[in-house]
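pls design
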């Protein structure tokens, strides 16, 4: 049974998830798009993206274990994250975006550590620094700075000086980046940032037709999001300080998705919340149906990509 396979933290389960991720990418890149294996630069991008996704999975798994987001030790969250990635296989060509998302996941972990009540200023500064660095890779990621101020409502709101910590992080990164660019005698790529933001704003309400596989992938992710939110808000058993932080990042992630049309920022929160739901399903056959349905999604998506060649 699938539930037996995923409800453990054995290394073999993690390896299987990684292999599935690698196979899904390989099928899309070299069988569906029929890209040549001789393109070294493209292979470098793919391998870099895979390494970043591997680190994302590793960190997501540790976040789940350290913060006891799920009641049992399982691999549901990393399995769901991998499924989402294969549903949107073009992400393997977006190394900067995947890198930005990795930094946001690290920021999520840093915010989760605030509940200990220790070194709050340092943790807030680290979180701000990570988000700003993510913003250098993808400008819209800067919206996640809102999470720092929202977190202050729960931790250290009485300390007014804490509210200026994100601004201090911005100044710090600006000085360091300016110094590096000055040494390298390189101009700041302000045009790339403004062009991206302008283009996204101009296309904000442009819901042009997407390919069938992409449309189905978006609808599938939206359905899982609605189920996860419905179960979370209507079942108090899921409520905890850690899950509240995850929900917080999810809502900010949805704002980022609205502006940038990049759904990757919701993968980690949805994976964690849906894992909370799946692990509490007591009817074994229902749990198996849910898991098999989720596992079939990437296969159906890749098949549609193959049929439509898109």
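designed seq:
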């Amino acid at each position: 049974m699938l539930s037996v396979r995923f409800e453990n933290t054995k290394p073999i389960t993690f390896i299987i998830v990684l292999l599935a991720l690698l196979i899904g990418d390989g099928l899309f890149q070299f069988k569906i798009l029929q890209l040549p294996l001789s393109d070294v630069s493209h292979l470098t991008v793919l391998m870099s993206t895979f390494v970043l996704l591997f680190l994302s999975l590793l960190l997501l798994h540790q976040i789940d274990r350290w913060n006891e987001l799920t009641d049992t030790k399982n691999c549901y969250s990393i399995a769901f994250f991998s499924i989402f990635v294969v549903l949107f296989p073009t992400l393997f060509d977006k190394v900067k975006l995947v890198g930005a998302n990795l930094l946001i996941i690290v920021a999520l972990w840093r915010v989760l550590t605030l509940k200990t009540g220790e070194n709050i200023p340092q943790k807030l500064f680290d979180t701000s620094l990570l988000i700003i660095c993510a913003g250098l890779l993808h400008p819209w990621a800067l919206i996640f700075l809102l999470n720092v101020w929202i977190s202050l409502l729960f931790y250290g709101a009485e300390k007014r000086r804490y509210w200026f910590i994100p601004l201090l992080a911005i100044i710090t990164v600006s000085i360091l980046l300016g110094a590096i660019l000055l040494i390298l005698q390189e101009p700041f790529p302000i045009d790339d940032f403004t062009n991206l933001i302008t283009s996204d704003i101009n296309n904000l309400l442009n819901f042009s037709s997407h390919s069938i596989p992409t449309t189905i992938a978006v609808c599938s992710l939206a359905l899982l999001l609605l189920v996860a939110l419905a179960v979370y808000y209507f079942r108090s058993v899921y409520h905890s300080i850690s899950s509240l932080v995850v929900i917080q990042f999810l809502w900010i992630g949805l704002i980022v998705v609205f502006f940038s049309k990049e759904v990757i920022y919701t993968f980690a929160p949805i994976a964690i919340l849906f894992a909370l739901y799946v692990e509490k399903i007591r009817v074994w056959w229902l749990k198996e149906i849910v898991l098999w349905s989720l596992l079939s999604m990437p296969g159906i998506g890749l098949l549609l990509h193959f049929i439509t060649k898109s």
